[in-house]
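Q: I'm writing up a methods section and want to include an example of the input and output format. Could you take the sequence below and give the corresponding predicted structure tokens, formatted cleanly so I can copy it straight into the document?
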Amino acid sequence: MSDSFCDLAGQTCVPCEGGIAALTAAEAKALMPQLHQDWELADDASYIERDFRFKGFAKAVYTTNAACFLADQQNHHPDIRMGWGYCTVRFCTHAVNGLSDNDFICAAKLDAIVGN
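A: Here is the clean output for your methods example:
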């Protein structure tokens, strides 16, 4: 796990093919304060999710596109739901069946892109 309270948005994801343990609930909770307050940690600490709300379709599309561009750059891909007025982004690391540092790095980078 990366050092607590480091600049997550300044880091780069590392390829994850499994073989490492998912972050514990305590480790995930310790990283949450470094993200925008709208990120939610699943009760079982298996994913983090942020729901973006807008007054129209275009901003939902732009946010979805930003998340997709980021995912492509970092080679770490979230689950995204979007429609008129909303975009929901969920990060988890499927290879470890839970959360990894990569999820928090991408969430922090997305916060930076959308201006929190």
